Every structure is written in structure tokens, then in C-alpha cells.
């Protein structure tokens, strides 16, 4: 047998040395100085080491050991910890890694698209932004004041892809998610324990990018929708429609380009067809189901957390035929399965954002950027179906909607401090047991007495009340003909009594069932707006 060439031997030696070096004791970036471990539950830690290497983790009075497997992976779990700190955590094997300034408290993951991702600096007066409307605003003064008040010694921050946890200095807060910090600061103050905030969000992204392909494929509801769509789907027909639409766009574009500039004012340029057709259940525009789950969320999965705060919806699911309600059911279930912490709380921000009036326009946190109160339109609108699937997401276990209709609209609402304060309010009530109302009035049923409809509500809080204008409005009634008219409405204790002279025998009822509903003005006295609803048949 001929000896191996010197160059080949050298290459093999370098490869072995590199492999050994790569297998040396190491931690992923999610474990670093300044981190926060979740209290009151077994806190996992993991990393890599040489195969067979014994690794020991010491923190406070605990010492846990594990042996790296054949692939060099190891994992331990600390016994449940009480809140407090800072402390020092050491990981010892072939070397010792020391993590300083480690706290124990509450940990939350913020995920979704741009309204969760965009940093504090984007909402400060004078800051230029990709959102031209946003850059013209007076800025979120409450957010700016909160940032300037830092650092917050008990608040820590980490963004997916960053080298580790950060302290909440004003400089770091300017670069950190505006909404998640606006959630974390009041939460930390109220709980008086350390809080860790983890951001895994990317602007303009669809929910189909944020769950694993396995969770999607195994979700029965998603697969039923796809199977039904395939019964009548024709790729040939869809391609023809797309081709025809593309040709029309191109001819319209030629006409548009030839128009004088003054004739373009106030008109929209021709819109290009959204994307080439794909089969039911596939992502549009070449997207890959689970892509961002793998690239952005995965480094955080398994870390001990209290719950998730989700803000996404403007970009929908990105998957043909699968609606947001169904996709979010698969996503929430999939995340919980992966994390292995049971049904942890999943909070999500209501979509569409804004488009409702405020309880108090003078409120410096909640009301200052809200949509203005409007008079009732002449005809009863019927374009509220787009919000229904977002209302339904709250029917999943341990899933809670954060109302946003009164917090201001636009693609990127200005009032991030208001959104964060509302997020914290919901968390304090539904997760931490504080005696505080977390929702506006919710339709709970009705009775009919003669020509009157008496509607009952849950979450009436300290009592029902209307704000803005001189009367309660936003309710509509219809008989069997489904011709809706505005109803006369009056608050009677914890109920609302409706009647309409034109509807002697009411059958259908609606409240605020419209895309823009800033004319609907029912609240509870806790300051939260009533949820829109439609009751198909009154029995």
C-alpha cells in the first residue's frame, strides 16, 4: 500500500484538529451574560462538547451534569428557580465558561412581522422610516420617555441572530422592538421581578413561514381545506387567469406611462397581479413553509419561557386557500409541541389594527393616536368579515387576543407604547391573575321581547358605557329579509336593548360589523371597546 501524499495527510490533520476545536465546550448565543432564566419551572440549558465529555452546570446551590452524546450535544435542566439575581452560572467540561449577571424571572418571546420587529428609534419624532406616514408623525412621546428613563436593571433583551443578551440601556432600547419593550417595561414594574424579552420577528412575513413543515402537514384542519380546494382546482384555468391579468396590467401600464403627470394626481397606477398561481396549500411567490421558523425562531425553541406575544396578520398566511385562523391553530399547537412546556399562554394582537374610536382621546398612552370618532354612515355596512378569523383565534386553548381597535391604525400604528401597555394588561390579567379587566364587552347571547332585542355581554367589567357622541350607536337589526337598519340602542344594566321601528320582528343583529368602525362606541367602564359581532339567527 502506497503512503498517503504529504498534502493529503496535512489536510486530514487540519480537518481533525478543526473538528476537535468545533466540538470544544460551547454554548449557543441564547445563553450569555445578562440572560434571564424562567422562574418556577425546570430551566433547560444545552450546548456542544467533545463526544463523551462530562459537562457540569452550576448555578446558585444547584449542580447538574450531563454527558455529550456521539454528536457532541448535551443538555441539562435546573430545578425550578425563584426570581432574583444577579448571579453567576458556570459550565465546566474541557474548559469553564462563566456567565455573569444572570437573573431569574419572567421570559417572553415576541414574534411576527414588522409591528413586532421595528425598533424604538422608528417611532421617535423626526426619525425617517420606510413607512412615509410614520416618519411624518409627532412620534410616540411616551415611548421616548420610557427609553430615556433606562437603563432598567431588571429588564434584559435579546434578538434572534444577535450574539447574546443585552442590558436595557437607552441605546439598546432604541434598537430593540418598540412593541416588546413597551410590553416588558410595565410588566416588569408591576410584577417586580426580572423580565427577559426575546424577539424573533421579520417584517412583511406570512404566518406560513413561521411553523415547521411537519406541523403544517400534520394539522388535520389545514389538510382538510387543501383536500377540498383540490376537488375543483384547475392549474390550467388559474394560469390562464394569471396570464390574462398580466397582459391587462402591461397594456394598462403603457396607457398610464403616456398620461401627463397632472392627470395621474389622485389616481392609482395599475397594479401588477400578485403572484403566479400555485397549487392549493403551497406558498405564493416562491416562499417555503417553515423558512423563518428554521432561520429565526429555532435558536430560541426549548429555552424556558412564560409565553409568546404575536403580532402578525397583515401579510396573511402566504399559503393558498388556508386562512389565518386555521394556520394559527397549526402554528400555536406546533410551537407548544416543540417547546415541550405544555399549553403556554399565547397572546396575539387583533387585526386589522385600529379603525375604532377611543375611550379617552386625552389618555397620553392609549388615546392620543386613535382614529377619530365618526358619525354613523347612512347605510349599514357589511364588510366586517375580514376580522372574523382573527376574533376566532382566541378560541384555541390558552390563547388570548389583545384588542387594538382603539389604538390607532395604519400599516405601522404610531402608538407602540399604547399597544405594549395593552399587551401587558392582558398578560397581567390572564397569565398572572391580577384582578383587572382584559377585554371589552363580548357578545354572550340575547332574548327577544316583542320587537326588542336584549343583548347580554361578558367582560362588562365595571359596567357598560358609551363614549363619544350623544347616544349609544353601532348596532343594526334586520328581519328575515336581511335588510339591516340602524337600531336604537340603550344600556340597561349589563345588557343593551335594541329596537328599530322598521323591524317589527327582528331576526339578525350586528355590532360594528365593518372594516372601519370608528362610529361604534360601546365600552366597559374599564376603558376597553366592545368586540364586533354578528348573530346570524336570533332565536
Question: How would you characterize the overall build of this protein?
Answer:
The structure is a single chain. With 539 residues, the protein is α/β, with parallel strands linked by helices. The protein has helices spanning 6-22, 114-117, 132-135, 141-148, 170-175, 178-191, 213-217, 220-230, 235-258, 261-264, 291-297, 324-339, 388-392, 416-430, and strands at residues 36-38, 43-48, 54-59, 62-67, 73-78, 84-92, 96-112, 152-159, 166-168, 195-201, 307-311, 346-349, 399-402, 442-449, 452-458, 464-466, 475-478, 485-486, 488-492, 495-499, 508-511, 522-524, 533-535. The strands form five sheets. Strands 1, 3, 4, 6, 7, 8, 9, 10, 11, 12 and 13 form an eleven-stranded mixed sheet that branches. It has a four-stranded antiparallel sheet with strand order 14-15-20-19, with no helix packed on it. A four-stranded antiparallel sheet has the order 18-17-21-23, with no helix packed on it. Helix 6 crosses helix 14. It is globular. Mean pLDDT is 92; it is low at 1-22.
Principal-axes geometry comes out as globular
Rg (C-alpha, Å): 27 Å
Q: How would you classify the helix and strand content by structural class?
A: alpha/beta
Q: What amount of the residues lies in strands?
A: 15-25%
- What summary fits the major beta sheet? 11 strands, mixed
Amino acid at each position: 500500500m502506497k503512503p498517503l501524499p504529504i498534502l493529503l495527510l496535512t489536510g486530514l490533520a487540519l480537518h481533525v484538529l478543526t473538528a476537535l476545536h468545533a466540538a470544544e465546550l460551547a454554548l449557543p448565543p441564547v445563553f450569555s451574560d445578562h440572560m434571564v432564566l424562567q422562574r418556577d419551572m425546570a430551566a433547560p440549558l444545552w450546548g456542544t462538547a467533545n463526544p463523551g465529555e462530562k459537562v457540569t452546570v452550576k448555578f446558585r446551590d444547584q449542580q447538574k451534569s450531563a454527558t455529550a452524546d456521539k454528536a457532541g450535544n448535551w443538555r441539562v435542566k435546573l430545578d425550578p428557580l425563584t426570581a432574583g439575581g444577579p448571579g453567576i452560572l458556570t459550565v465546566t467540561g474541557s474548559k469553564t465558561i462563566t456567565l455573569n449577571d444572570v437573573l431569574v424571572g419572567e421570559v417572553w418571546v415576541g414574534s411576527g412581522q414588522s409591528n413586532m420587529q421595528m425598533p424604538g428609534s422608528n417611532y421617535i419624532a423626526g426619525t425617517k422610516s420606510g413607512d412615509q406616514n410614520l416618519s411624518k408623525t409627532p412620534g410616540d412621546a411616551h415611548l421616548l420617555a420610557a427609553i430615556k428613563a433606562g437603563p432598567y436593571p431588571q429588564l434584559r433583551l435579546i434578538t434572534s441572530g444577535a450574539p447574546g443578551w443585552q442590558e436595557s440601556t437607552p441605546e439598546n432600547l432604541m434598537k430593540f422592538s418598540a412593541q416588546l419593550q413597551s410590553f416588558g417595561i410595565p410588566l416588569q414594574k408591576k410584577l417586580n421581578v426580572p423580565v427577559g424579552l426575546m424577539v424573533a420577528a421579520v417584517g412583511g412575513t406570512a404566518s406560513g413561514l413561521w411553523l415547521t413543515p411537519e406541523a403544517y402537514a400534520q394539522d388535520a384542519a389545514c389538510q382538510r381545506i387543501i383536500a377540498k380546494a383540490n376537488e375543483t382546482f384547475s392549474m390550467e384555468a388559474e394560469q390562464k387567469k394569471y396570464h390574462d391579468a398580466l397582459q391587462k396590467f402591461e397594456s394598462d401600464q403603457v396607457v398610464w406611462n403616456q398620461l401627463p403627470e397632472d392627470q395621474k394626481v389622485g389616481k392609482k397606477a395599475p397594479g401588477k397581479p400578485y403572484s403566479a398561481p400555485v397549487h392549493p396549500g403551497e406558498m405564493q411567490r416562491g416562499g417555503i413553509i417553515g423558512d423563518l421558523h428554521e432561520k429565526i425562531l429555532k435558536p430560541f425553541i426549548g429555552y424556558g419561557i412564560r409565553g409568546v406575544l404575536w403580532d402578525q396578520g397583515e401579510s396573511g398566511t402566504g399559503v393558498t386557500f388556508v386562512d389565518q385562523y386555521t394556520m394559527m391553530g397549526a402554528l400555536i399547537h406546533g410551537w407548544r409541541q416543540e417547546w415541550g412546556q405544555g399549553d403556554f399562554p399565547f397572546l396575539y394582537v387583533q387585526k386589522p389594527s385600529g379603525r375604532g374610536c377611543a375611550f379617552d382621546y386625552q389618555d397620553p398612552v392609549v388615546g392620543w393616536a386613535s382614529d377619530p370618532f365618526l358619525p354613523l354612515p347612512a347605510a349599514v355596512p357589511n364588510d366586517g368579515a375580514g376580522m372574523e378569523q382573527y376574533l376566532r383565534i382566541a378560541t384555541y386553548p390558552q390563547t388570548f387576543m389583545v384588542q387594538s381597535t382603539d389604538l390607532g391604525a395604519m400599516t405601522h400604528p404610531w402608538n407602540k407604547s399604547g399597544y405594549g401597555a395593552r399587551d401587558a394588561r392582558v398578560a397581567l390579567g390572564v397569565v398572572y391573575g391580577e384582578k383587572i379587566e382584559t377585554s371589552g364587552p363580548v357578545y354572550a347571547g340575547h332574548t327577544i321581547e316583542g320587537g326588542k332585542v336584549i343583548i347580554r355581554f361578558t367582560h362588562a367589567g365595571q359596567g357598560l358605557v358609551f363614549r363619544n357622541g350623544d347616544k349609544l350607536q353601532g348596532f343594526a337589526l334586520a328581519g328575515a329579509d336581511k335588510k339591516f337598519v340602524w337600531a336604537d340602542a340603550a344600556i340597561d344594566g349589563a345588557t343593551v336593548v335594541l329596537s328599530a321601528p322598521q323591524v317589527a320582528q327582528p331576526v339578525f343583529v350586528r355590532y360594528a360589523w365593518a372594516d372601519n368602525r370608528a362610529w361604534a362606541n360601546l365600552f366597559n367602564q374599564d376603558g376597553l371597546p366592545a368586540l364586533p359581532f354578528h348573530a346570524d339567527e336570533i332565536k
